[in-house]
Amino acid sequence: MSRSSLGASALATLIATVVCANTASAEDLAAIEAAAKTEGMLTTIALPHDWCGYGGVIESFKKKYPDIKVNELNPDAGSADELEAIRANKDNKGPQAPDVIDVGFSFGPAAKKEGLLQPYKVSTWDSIPENVKDPEGYFYGDYYGVLSFVINKDLVKTAPEDWADLLKPEYANSVALAGDPRASNQAILGVYAAGLSAGATGAEAIGQAGLDYFAKMNKAGNFVPTIGKAGTIAQGATPIVIMWDYNGLSARETLKGNPPVDVVVPKTGVVAGVYVQGISAHAPHPNAAKLWMEHLYSDEGQLGWLNGYCHPIRFNSLAAENKIPKDLLDALPPAAAYEKASFPTVEDQDASKAVVTAKWDAVVGANVK
User: Fold this and answer.
1) For residue 341, what are the CA distances in angstroms to 266, 267, 268, 272, 309?
2) What is the pLDDT of residues 336-347, one digit of tens each?
3) Which domains can be identified in the chain, with CATH numbers?
4) pLDDT for res 19
């Protein structure tokens, strides 16, 4: 069905018939694509181009659907900011209202509970593991990685090997998180990982132990209250940044040896994080949002995450079908680095997040920005 052949009444009927949560069929996809082209825009939020290969993923979507403009909002926003953007724009159909979100695993159930998401099951739904998707289709995992230390080798001569090392005097004024731990899922899990490394058990206790760890780091003068990224690593403002392995590997590639960058997965407290996708319940362009999800969960979209050094959520399915190029596998850290990885449950993440976000200011006292 061409864009020009779709009348107003037909469009209304079409949109009404493609909003169901059942797994999309080929007929559904054709209808969704036609409606999405009529909408003509997709509004995303919090998608830095150097995060998990998003730059390439967005470009491949544009190439596939040139009739749909991609409107990108606030690439440096955290997961909490994404949910706030939906709340703030629920009655606004303008360009500041996001259609889709990409948030940390624990933010998915919270967004569903609050009524911020609408259900939709992509056509590859069955190959997404059950434990990382909402059974009704409100949110679903898309990729994961592990937290690592990303290091400017020009400034840090001896790379830290574990969390305890970061408290040493030699790392004075050197260590940063890649987000604000009061809002960023990546930073919150960084605190969680530190607590796990300290030997704490139970989500709330792990969160508290992580806060105590960062309080020690801040008191020692090692913590830098600046959101770390490739630019701050290169400038020397944050010589060591705690961030996802895929972001660190992407930064290393982007900086091209100027300065040389090392990416170290710690020996203990190895925490894996799953990020989930969802469609706003108030999306101005709901069919473009569905088409975007279909793109992300297609073989092409999933391999796009591997290009960005991420493990796609359909990794096992793609590997079983021999669809993963060897060069993409070889670019990832050795499999041994992931052997001790812990995948916190949504419940654990919720419990630790509540502790970290509520107590960071009182316990650590560093205003990260």
Assistant:
1) 10, 10, 9, 6, 16
2) 777 788 889 888
3) 8-141+274-328 (3.40.190.10), 145-272+334-363 (3.40.190.10)
4) 38
